[in-house]
Amino acid sequence: MAQNTRTVPAGTPTNVTQKHAKGGIGESTLRPDGTLKVTGEFAYSSDMWHEDMLWGQTLRSTVAHAEIVSIDISEALALPGVYSILTYDDLPAEMKNYGLEIQDTPVLANGRVRHHGEPVALVAADHPETARRAAAKIKIDYRELPLVTDEASALAEGAPLIHEGRDDHHIGHVPHPNIVHRQPIIRGDVAEARKRADVIVEGEYVFGMQDQAFLGPESGLAVPSEDGGVDLYVATQWLHSDLKQIAPVLGLPEEKVRMTLSGVGGAFGGREDISMQIHACLLALATNKPVKIVYNRFESFFGHVHRHPAKLHYEHGATKDGKLTHMKCRIVLDGGAYASASPAVVGNASSLSVGPYVIEDVDIEAIALYTNNPPCGAMRGFGAVQACFAYEAQMDKLAAKLGMDPVEFRQLNAMEMGTIMPTGQVVDSPAPVAELLRRVKARPLPPERQWETAGEGADVRALPGGLSNTTHGEGVVRGVGYAVGIKNVGFSEGFDDHSTARVRLEVINGEPVAMVHTAMAEVGQGGVTVHAQIARTELGVTQVTIHPADTQVGSAGSTSASRQTYMTGGAVKNTCEHVREALLEMGRRKNGSYHPAWAHAELLLEGGKVVTDGGEVLADIADILEGEAIDLELEFRHRPTVPFDLVTGQGDGHVQYTFAAHRAVVEVDTELGLVKVVELATAQDVGKALNMLSVVGQIQGGTIQGLGVAIMEEIIVDPKTAKVRNPSFTDYLIPTILDTPTIPVDVLELADPNAPYGLRGMGEAPTLSSTPAVLAAIRQATGLELNKTPIRPEALTGTL
């Protein structure tokens, strides 16, 4: 039988070993990749190199909706150094589409493009500049088609269908083919409840399209193998999901597509979909040479999905003593040209649209549209962000109309353990919403006009406009705002959410060593650190090796939905527990006759030894193993969920809920429309902090992403052409360190009895409430309604 040889490229991930005397759960163990990253020594996927590799380039559509009349590659193919050019007609398999849930996305456009920047052709050449020049020489004749850009044009009579002949499982319950998915939630009787309301407030809200803006652009290296397969080294969020989409369009069995995670420079949902993976593999197989693809920043804006822009209409009622009576809302999400994760985002937006409040009577509808705008999908917060922005604005409106303090009004209506969600699901773990609000409100406010305390002259860094030196304090007004949000954890609605961990315990150089192997994508969340901490805690060893993530082990699911510490951490814990029991059973067989404690005592593994719960040492782990190894691979699942009913929205659709609150302090130059966020204090329940340093870092990072979409971040799509206007960090602005305020963090640890160690997924929740808190503070400072994100200067100065 022929051997399958693999040439490992430079920059390939290697085992990461952590060796500490302690370093178990609950400690702020340092990240093994931290020093490498801050010193520039860490190998990202864009650093991958193979001696004889080619460079891939994607040609993308310059229009948003058009028929492809012709493609002429002759001039490009004649360019010296070009090895291959591929179009739709060159695809090797019967399956030519892919997708997370609905396979509606073509590998390359087939006679029609549906959005600006859609891939049309691929080039492989011996130099990246040659590949770019060749792509520019490909001539495409387009015949432009009518555009669908919003709900009115999508659902109008005779509207162009973005996808004709849909046969996916959602088509049977949507009222129009340009609706990807629809989820209503009906509970109680809103008409009757409205009669009990002493005050009613309504609001129309618009949430802009946000980009994940990860700093490491999409990149990877595909290497053809002797067995006709391919080895792919890539930055992604979900190796096995990629594999299931890649293999069919290559016409290969999954075992011939071997994937290894390369260094990931951030993700935030933008790497959950396929970008360059299939394209690199196609070019590698076509040329029989390794092919590397690295997007530049411009292409990255077209190479991944974005956060769904949304239009939200809310109505709330309350009694004069401040109790909420009812809520009615309609949420319209723009999914763009392809489905991506839109169905799941609709489920989240609808089921979490009420917020962390007790409201018995609700009428909710959420839909996602197909349009010719850029495709939208997963981003940190996943549908709950848009809803939180709207319902928190409503809470402020109600409090103002009732003459109540906005925090006290929220606390009066706050859910708690035992609350029934609008879906009928009982919240069966701690829900400290009122306490989180109390904590952020109780924190001392930062001093006002801090720029005046810097001695001589004003410190312009503390002023709106910062180093642009636009003001020295004239017209600057302070505002304070509050918000709280609710987010689900893990995959929902009946999805078989599971994770796999392989753990091997053996003796190396006389010392017991645990090797942990999962397919978890480390995208910056610190999972590799936590896995080592869990192994040390459960196996009592000091040395833990983390195997590179690849598809040679079972799926770990996606690094998204705040699920990895819960799910893959749970899988590591579960497998370690079985390894521990196997080790103790081995010890009982070998040593049980020498000490009665082997049969009767509760035995623990600590410091490389087997000890009783009283601290008596029975044996060294190394002596029990005696050259043998224990090697187990096991799956872990959370408790089951069910899909929401398609008519009533009822069902236990979520695994766990997580909560965070923010208080924003801003200073606004009302004359120039400039905003300085002075402080964003936050409080969050994390169940159990496995690594407090990582927890605080995640909370602060999520808070800043929420700040970004509040006052600066938005992808601008021209409504007349559906073209992206600002695909660069020159025009798409993200917060820098100079925009980052003080972020005091208050962490609660109220254990969830259903979760490993009692932990609560926590990476997304801070992204929810930071946005509406900032907007609430700006509203207080200016007196303006401000129902759209992001807030731009012209909205504050009235010069729109």
TrEMBL record:
<dbReference type="Pfam" id="PF01315">
    <property type="entry name" value="Ald_Xan_dh_C"/>
</dbReference>
<dbReference type="InterPro" id="IPR000674">
    <property type="entry name" value="Ald_Oxase/Xan_DH_a/b"/>
</dbReference>
<dbReference type="InterPro" id="IPR016208">
    <property type="entry name" value="Ald_Oxase/xanthine_DH-like"/>
</dbReference>
<feature type="region of interest" description="Disordered">
    <location>
        <begin position="1"/>
        <end position="31"/>
    </location>
</feature>
<dbReference type="InterPro" id="IPR036856">
    <property type="entry name" value="Ald_Oxase/Xan_DH_a/b_sf"/>
</dbReference>
<dbReference type="Pfam" id="PF20256">
    <property type="entry name" value="MoCoBD_2"/>
</dbReference>
<dbReference type="InterPro" id="IPR037165">
    <property type="entry name" value="AldOxase/xan_DH_Mopterin-bd_sf"/>
</dbReference>
<keyword id="KW-0560">Oxidoreductase</keyword>
<dbReference type="Pfam" id="PF02738">
    <property type="entry name" value="MoCoBD_1"/>
</dbReference>
<dbReference type="InterPro" id="IPR017609">
    <property type="entry name" value="Xanthine_dehydrogenase_dsu"/>
</dbReference>
<dbReference type="InterPro" id="IPR046867">
    <property type="entry name" value="AldOxase/xan_DH_MoCoBD2"/>
</dbReference>
<dbReference type="GO" id="GO:0004854">
    <property type="term" value="F:xanthine dehydrogenase activity"/>
</dbReference>
<feature type="compositionally biased region" description="Polar residues">
    <location>
        <begin position="1"/>
        <end position="18"/>
    </location>
</feature>
<feature type="domain" description="Aldehyde oxidase/xanthine dehydrogenase a/b hammerhead">
    <location>
        <begin position="39"/>
        <end position="146"/>
    </location>
</feature>
<dbReference type="InterPro" id="IPR008274">
    <property type="entry name" value="AldOxase/xan_DH_MoCoBD1"/>
</dbReference>
<protein>
    <submittedName>
        <fullName>Xanthine dehydrogenase subunit D</fullName>
        <ecNumber>1.17.1.4</ecNumber>
    </submittedName>
</protein>
